Amino acid sequence: MLTAADNEILTRVGRGTPGGELLRRYWMPACLSSEVPEADGPPARVRLLGEDLVAFRDTDGRVGLVEERCPHRGASLFYGRNEECGLRCVYHGWKFDTSGQCVDQRNERRSFADRIRIDAYPTHESGGIVWTYLGPPETMTPFRDFGTESLPPAECVANKEFADCNWVQSFDGDVDTGHISALHQFDAIEQLDDDGTDRPGYPSSYFSMKIWRNDPKPLIEVNDEWYGYRYAGLRTTPNGHRHARITAYIFPLATMIASIPFSSRVIFHAPVDDHSVWRYGFNTKPSTLDVDLGGKPFWTAPGYPFENNPPTGIVPRHYTRDNDYGIDRVAQKGISYTGISHFRSHDYMATETPGKIWDRTREHLGGGDLAVARFHQLIISAAKALKEGAGPPALAGTGDFRTIRAAEKILDQDEDWRALGTDADPLVQEAYRRQREAALSGADD
After folding, report:
1. Collapsing DSSP states into helix, strand and coil, what is residue 275?
2. Which domain range does residue 92 map to?
């Protein structure tokens, strides 16, 4: 369990708080590019780290991110007119460009627009997301490229989903491989026969779920890295082999969750405020890097009973605390472990029901929570160190973020999970060889 003081550092994101000042040193998602799709189109509301902002795409296609309140009389710029390279307040006609500079005062005979500026933050579009930096201008570092900078527009697949709880509660689920042996299970998996993949190598996605169910007590091993850590949940398969699910944590707000054979899809948590969070997901690699192992997705397994999220856009929430996440007590006794029919709503239930901010002085972590505890420790330590003058970890320039990957495999007897999904992994090397060949073939055509 944490002290009350450390829980405050971990969970509070407002300006001036230790945790909030730490998070402001990193580029983070402000909105999806699809929320401001066209020049001079409608603005979008953005609330990030407790600040109310407005995003808009100006006439030249640049995305501005400015404070919501007009400095004249406080009206919301969300209702403003997006026109001629600026956002104009409809109350009296004051207009602001993407830098926050007032460029026109429609109601003033003697304009003093040159003396009026609102808060505005830099933006950067990459991977279908508008990113921003909310920290001090003098400490702004380059954008961290997870692979999206060179991604073709057609391959930019991004979505976001809202969680009605503190960002740490939502994040804890992403670095907790133990819960998949209970929370996401369904009874029909027991009838799934061995399809021949319960052996060293890559199991089918179907059979992977049966492995999760077979061993609900994974051994957790955490390996610190320059960007945060990678950890493995090690389970015993029905045939007695050792199975590894490897997830990467990228400081401070991102994960890559285990997948067969490897994955670099990023989940990035952008705190709305102390009490809610947007959970962004986005691709970082072209489809030419896909490797045909694992077979069909696990949600196409026979008897799979759950609904799944759409892959792009803002994910709708049909199941919340208000309707008890759609729980069916009959289904809970004969179909699924939770009785909740929507897959991601399993996680919403688990992370939202502790309350807006979970009191971790009441928390009792065990051996299955080593990755969760390490994540908490890293955030708290970095926030305290920043307050004492130390620099934040894992900024741009500390390493190549494109080389970070998650992975999943049934291990050979002496195989080390730490190599899986890295540049040293023969399967990763093979995937990049195929990509180079595909690129050369396309150039010849």
Report:
1. coil
2. 27-143
